[in-house]
Amino acid sequence: MEELYQQYSRIVFHFLYRKCKDPALAEDLMQETFLKALERLDSYDYSCKLSTWLCQIAKHLLYQHWSKTGRIQLEELDETLKSAHDTEQHAIAKVELADVWEKLQSLSPDARKVVELRVLGDLSYREIGDILGRTENWARVTFYRAKLWLIDSG
């Protein structure tokens, strides 16, 4: 487990910090993530990367923390209020999101994973390369080519 911690702790911490913007909370939840992972290691089914599995555990722990403390991130509340006041814009955004999602599905699996990790996971190219077992440059070029393809296909 020590080896897994050394390999993935930065990724999990970065993921949590981007979500909560609190380094102390991110550190605490990162530690708790690895404890939960150790308890549930037998449930890991290899259907996704280990880093993805760990980040899912971390996300659930963060949401549990927010639920217990009653804290809602201001950005999330702001977005909810904006969309509630402008249902037409919300509907348009959903249609556009569906179009983008459909286009993403036509990318190669590697390119799709790079785009998801970069955009949704907010990871650096170096982290993406580490997660996918490739180089930072490969991740950068793959993202660039996928972006060009998405723009040209739209």
Describe the protein's topology:
Blueprint: H1 2-20, H2 23-39, H3 50-69, H4 74-85, H5 87-105, H6 109-120, H7 125-132, H8 136-153
Helix pairs in contact: 1-2, 1-3, 2-3, 6-8, 7-8
Please indicate the percent range of residues in DSSP E strands (runs of 2 or more): under 5%
* End-to-end separation: 45 Å
Q: What is the succession of H and E elements?
A: HHHHHHHH
Extended strand count: 0
Coarse shape: globular
Question: What is the multimeric organization of the chains shown?
Answer: single chain
Global structural class: mainly alpha
Rg (C-alpha, Å): 17 Å
Mean pLDDT: 79
Q: In DSSP terms, counting alpha (H) and pi (I) runs of 4 or more, how many helices?
A: 8
Which percent range fits the helix content?
Answer: over 70%
Largest sheet: none
Question: Uncertain runs with pLDDT below 50, 5 residues or more?
Answer: 73-81
Describe this structure in words.
With 154 residues, this protein is mostly helical. The protein has eight helices and no strands. The chain has helices at residues 2-20, 23-39, 50-69, 74-85, 87-105, 109-120, 125-132, 136-153. α1 (2-20) packs across α2 (23-39) and α2 (23-39) crosses α3. The protein is globular, with a radius of gyration of 17 Å. It starts with a helix and ends with a helix.
